Amino acid sequence: MSSDAPSGGAAGDPPPGQYWRDEPEIMHYGRIPALRPDRWTFAVGGATADGLEHTFEWAEVLALPRHELVADMHCNTRWSVQGMRWSGPRATDVIAMAPPGPEATGALVFAEFGYAANVPLADLGVPTALLATTLEDEPLTAERGAPMRLIIPHLYTWKGPKWVRGWNYLTTEDDDLGFWEKRGYHRRGHAWQEQRYDYQGEHP
């Protein structure tokens, strides 16, 4: 995974400042939405290549090729969990259906109840960025983000919203910030570079 691969630690070590735990803590902002895949849509807008917003039904996204990903999870609150097994379409497959314009550099990924997170386009476009619908071979539960959540293993978990509903491509001229970025969290959030807070700089 090129520059996004873990670095600087011995094999089996978590990222800097993290500790291993057996199970991921259930954490989210706001209440848990009702599970209604028949009403679920995925929208991609902002600086798209054709200037239009694209909306996909649940069946369209679910019909994309499925991929399995085994990866560690890292929360900004300092816990990490090893070897979680997810499956679902890759974010790159959705990007291919609604590509960004040449001026796009990032995305504001949004979810239910107004939650959003800033994600650099280079991170959203890695092969390991997954729109997961299962965890450990079972459909996601509501508290784990059903029907779909974004997983980007090398970033802290707040960058992968539960109950994800789409993203808007951003340019360098856009100043849109996600929920935690508005509250001082880092614009990128690379776990292995320990990018927790905005004051640390090194923004994409």
Structure description:
- By secondary structure, the chain is mainly β.
- The protein has one domain (37-46, 68-200): Oxidoreductase, molybdopterin-binding domain (Sulfite Oxidase, Chain A, domain 2).
- Helices cover 8% and strands 30% of the residues.
- Strands 1, 4, 5, 9 and 10 form a 5-stranded mixed beta sheet that branches.
- It is globular and about 45 Å long.
- Mean pLDDT is 90; it is low at 1-10.
Beta-strand percentage range: 25-35%
In terms of structural class, how would the helical and strand content be classed? Answer: mainly beta
Q: Between the first and last Cα atoms, what is the distance in angstroms? A: 18 Å
Instruction: Count all strands and give the number.
Output: 12
The tally of structural domains comes to 1
Named at the architecture level, the CATH assignment is Alpha-Beta Complex
**What are the segments in which pLDDT stays under 50 over at least 5 consecutive residues?**
1-10
Question: How would you describe this structure in keywords?
Answer:
Sulfite Oxidase, Chain A, domain 2; 204 residues; 8% helix; 3 helices; globular; mainly beta; 5-stranded mixed β-sheet; 12 strands
